[in-house]
Amino acid sequence: MAETVETPAIVLDRIPYGEADLILHLLTRDHGLVAALARSARGSRRRFAGGVDLFVVADVRFRPAGARSSLALLAGAEPVRSFPGLYDHLDRMEAGQAMLMLARDLLRDAPAGESTFLRVVEALARLETAPPDRAPLEILGLAIALLCELGHPPVDESCPACGEAVGASGVVAVAPDGAMLCGRCAPAGAVRFSSSLLGGTAREVEAGPVPARADVLSLVAALVSGVLGRRWRLRMGTDT
After folding, report:
1. Among the four 29, 44, 59, 112, which has the fewest Cβ within 10 Å?
2. pLDDT tens for residues 93-150?
3. Closest CA to 13 of 49, 30, 46, 38
C-alpha cells in the first residue's frame, strides 16, 4: 500500500460520487494537481472538518493513486486558511469560482509546483478585498500569472495578422472568433482593450476605468483558448 503523503492544498472542483463520496481536484503545493476520492465527505462534516470546501487552504493527507485506481484516496483535510470575504458579495464569490475553474482547466495537463499553488492562493487573497466591480480584473490577473508560470506570457504573443506583439499599438483586440490581435488589425466587431490590462493584476490598472465584465471575460477566454489550442469560455452568474 502506498504511503500517505501530506501537503497544503486547495480544492478546485468537487464532483458528487455515489451516495456520499466526493471526487476532488486538488491543487497541492508539493504534488501538483491531484484527483482524489473523499469517502463519505458529503455524509459527515466531521471527517474532513471543512477542509474539502471551496475557498479553503487545508493540510491534506492522501494515498497516491495506484495501479488499480486513477484516484488518490483522501485520508484527512484540516483547514488552515479561508477567505470569508469572498462570500460578502456575489461578484467576488462568482469570480472566486471562476478562478478555481480557470486553474483547473489550465493546469489539468501541465506541471504545477509551489509557485503555481501560491499564485492561486494569493489571487484569492487579493479578490477577498477587491472592490466587487473589479473582481473580473482579478480573474484576468490570475490568468496572466498562470500563463506566465506555464511559459506563455501574453505580452509576448504575436498578432496572427501582422506578426507584431499584440500590445504594440497600445490596444489589444479579441475578434468575434476568439482570436487575439493587435489594435491595428482588429476587424469590425472586435472587443478592444488597453494593452495595460496584460501587464498584471487589477491593482496595477486600478487607476483606469472599469472594463465591462463581459469584455474582461472575453479577453481571459482568448488568452486561455490560445494556450489550450481549443475554444474555451468562462461563464459567470447570468452570462450565457
Report:
1. 44
2. 999 999 999 999 999 888 899 999 999 999 999 999 999 988 998 999 899 899 889 8
3. 38
The reported pTM is 0.85
What cell numbers appear for 30 in the block? 508539493
- CA end-to-end distance (rounded Å), the chain: 47
What class does CATH assign to 5-82?
mainly beta
Dihedral sign computed on CA atoms, order 155, 158, 162, 163: positive
Within 13 Å and on the Cβ side, how many CA atoms surround 159? 23
> CA-CA distance, 128 to 85, in Å (whole number)?
5
How far is residue 205's CA from residue 125's CA, in Å, rounded to a whole number?
A: 18
Contacts of residue 218, defined as CB under 8 A and 6 or more positions apart, other chains included, come to: 174, 191
Q: Using the 8-state DSSP alphabet, how is residue 71 labeled?
A: S
* CA–CA distance, 213 with 211 (Å, rounded to integer): 6
**Per-residue model confidence as pLDDT tens digits over 134-191:** 899 899 989 989 988 988 877 667 888 898 888 777 888 877 666 778 888 888 877 7
Task: List, for residues 3-24, the tens digit of each pLDDT value.
Answer: 899 999 999 999 999 888 999 9
Domain ranges of the chain: 5-82, 85-228
Q: Rounded distance, CA 181 to CA 157, Å?
A: 9
CATH of domain 85-228: 1.20.1440
Q: For cell 489589444, what's the residue?
A: 172
Residue 49 has pLDDT above 50, yes or no: yes
Rounded CA separation 72/66 (Å): 8
Burial class (CB in 10 A: 0-12, 13-18, 19+), 95: buried
